[in-house]
Amino acid sequence: MATEVQIQAPFITLGQLLKEESIIATGGQAKWFLRENTVLVNEEPDDRRGRKLYPGDIIAVPSGERFVINGTGASAN
């Protein structure tokens, strides 16, 4: 079962998600973590810490944890 991640903005970056979900301790660790570990975004490997994640995106990390982005209606307009 995936953990729902609530966001207020239109998107969150992959690096921000890793930090907010305590996968990494600081934002500066994102580059290293993504270089050393395979993170799947919508079942495809992605190593870009700036990758924008939108509501409905599913992220899987090596520990087996899965996250689904859930927005609250903020728009990018």
Automatic annotation (TrEMBL):
Transmembrane segments: none
Keyword RNA-binding: yes
Superkingdom of origin organism: Bacteria
One Pfam assignment: S4_2
Keywords: RNA-binding
Keyword Cell membrane applies: no
Protein name as annotated: S4 domain-containing protein YaaA
Lineage of the organism: Bacteria, Bacillati, Bacillota, Bacilli, Lactobacillales
